[in-house]
């Protein structure tokens, strides 16, 4: 696991080459709204829903937590939604270990 997601062209994961959001000329703020604004998030999620690398994107974002956790919409989820997914997965792992 990496401690951060390096998005420089030479280091970006190969799946990013198919990222639908990279093909849409738009303002960076639409992907990383602060504070998170409903209409903007809904728009980004609609794009993610059609993205061929949504799973890869989501797993990459989920792999980073704490201060390294990416903000904004990744894999069709907000940062808050990803934290809930991480929590559910941790609980499931604890359940399997018991
Ligand atoms: S899932 Fe969404 S944020 Fe991730 S690469 Fe695709 S369009 Fe971009």
TrEMBL record:
Taxonomy, superkingdom: Bacteria
Cofactor: [4Fe-4S] cluster
Residue spans of biased composition, Basic residues class: 85-98
UniProt domain 4Fe-4S Wbl-type: residue ranges: 20-84
Signal peptide: none
Compartments where located: Cytoplasm
Gene Ontology MF annotations: 4 iron, 4 sulfur cluster binding; DNA binding; metal ion binding; protein-disulfide reductase [NAD(P)H] activity
Main location: cytoplasm
UniProt keyword annotations, A-Z: 4Fe-4S, Disulfide bond, DNA-binding, Iron, Iron-sulfur, Metal-binding, Transcription, Transcription regulation
Residue span of region Disordered: 69-98
Biological processes annotated in GO: cell redox homeostasis; negative regulation of DNA-templated transcription
Cited Pfam families: Whib (PF02467)
Gene Ontology CC annotation, any one: cytoplasm
InterPro entries: 4FE4S_WBL, Whib
PROSITE patterns for the chain: 4FE4S_WBL
Family: Belongs to the WhiB family.
PANTHER family assigned: TRANSCRIPTIONAL REGULATOR WHIB, TRANSCRIPTIONAL REGULATOR WHID-RELATED
Name of protein: WhiB family redox-sensing transcriptional regulator
Highest classification ranks of the organism: Bacteria, Bacillati, Actinomycetota, Actinomycetes, Streptosporangiales
